[in-house]
Amino acid sequence: MSKVTIIGATGNVGSFAAHTISEIPYVSEILLHGRAGREDLLCGLANDLADSFAASGNSIDLSWTTDLRDVIGSDIIVCTAGTPRRPGQDRLDLALENARIVSETSRIVGEAAPESTILMVTNPVDVMTSVALKYSGLSPSHVFGLGTHLDSMRLKSLIAQHFRVHVSEVHTRIIGEHGESMVPLWSATTIGGIQISNLPAFSHLPIHEMVEQVRSSGEKIIKSKGSTVYGPGEAIATLVRTVLGNENRILTVSAFVKSEVHDIGNVCIGVPARINRDGVFPVAIKISEDEVVAFQESVEKIRGITGNVFRRLNEEKG
Fold first, then answer.
1. C-alpha dihedral over 108, 128, 122, 4, to 10 degrees?
2. What is the CATH number of domain 2-145?
3. Residue numbers annotated as active site
4. Mutual angle of helices 230-244 and 149-163, in 10-degree steps
């Protein structure tokens, strides 16, 4: 049985993730963490969740704190802390703003819970995963991000709707940045075990419209209701369950990739990875030439932003 800590638990995603994670059978303890000054909100959230546990017969040990060092003994730590992108805000400015939070948070987590695994949710998630990896001091296999996992599930759902099949029949992935330069892997997409390009209906598939729908999905939800909650919350729970259940599933997450994808890497970015209790391990794959080019461009973009963030953090920290 395992302890899961949620950093940034008072946010919309963090609070819903606490509920979805509570339904995982391997979890015996959940710690809700929030910043100082949020004590009343943390207490109210804990009480509300406790009522839901009572109604469902769930006996999880639930507590809250504003002291990051209470993460000691955590098996997995979900980081949702940070600020959302404001209208007109430059991505690098958002990255630097959240990197200040994530760097200090990760440093304390690495000291207090060196045996834990960090799951990064804070955006821009690929950059923040690199920040968490550097400042926590944990091994690359124990720091990963939500990455393109939810993007891949969104594309999977759209393909299933188009071909009128159950989503379980569709296997597809989006790699690269969780953002504009994401790369759908049509070369690795199958339906019922059949390569999608071998299906006559593939020629009528609105590929560009589908990818654009996935790319803009989060932004549209934010404009409509203020924030994305249920999709990320369920995706977080899936990844936590995969780790704690030692499931050895291959999911597409933000992880430190060396050279597994056509010798392109040395950055944290969305790639297929085998996930189990020991950590997250990128899988070596071969993809089509146009996908290689697109992935290289995505990697260079994220590498550039990550490098700029590290330089500015170093300047600020002296």
1. -40
2. 3.40.50.720
3. 178
4. 110
DSSP for the chain, written as a single string: -EEEEEETTTSHHHHHHHHHHTT-TTEEEEEEE--TT-HHHHHHHHHHHHHHHHHHT---EEEEES-GGGGTT-SEEEE--S-PPPTT--HHHHHHHHHHHHHHHHHHHHHH-TT-EEEE-SSSHHHHHHHHHHHH---GGGEEE-TTHHHHHHHHHHHHHHHT--GGGEE--EEB-SSTT-EE-GGG-EETTEEGGGSGGGGG--HHHHHHHHHHHHHHHHHHHSS--HHHHHHHHHHHHHHHTT--EEEEEEEEESSTBTTB-SEEEEEEEEEETTEEEEPPB---HHHHHHHHHHHHHHHHHHHHHHHHHHHHH-
pTM: 0.95
Architecture of the domain defined by 149-305: Alpha-Beta Complex (3.90)
CA-CA-CA-CA torsion for 45, 50, 53, 54, nearest 10 degrees? Answer: -140
Question: Could you read off the pLDDT of 98-146 as tens digits, one per residue?
Answer: 999 999 999 999 999 999 999 999 999 999 999 999 999 999 999 999 9
For residue 255, give both structure tokens.
């992880």
pLDDT tens digits, residue range 199-239?
998 888 999 999 999 998 888 888 888 888 999 999 999 99
Quickly tell me which residue has 């939810």 as its tokens: 150
Which residue ranges make up each domain of the chain?
A: 2-145, 149-305
Span of 62-66, 126-130, 197-201, 248-252 with lowest mean pLDDT: 197-201
With 90 as the cut, is the pLDDT of residue 297 above it?
A: yes
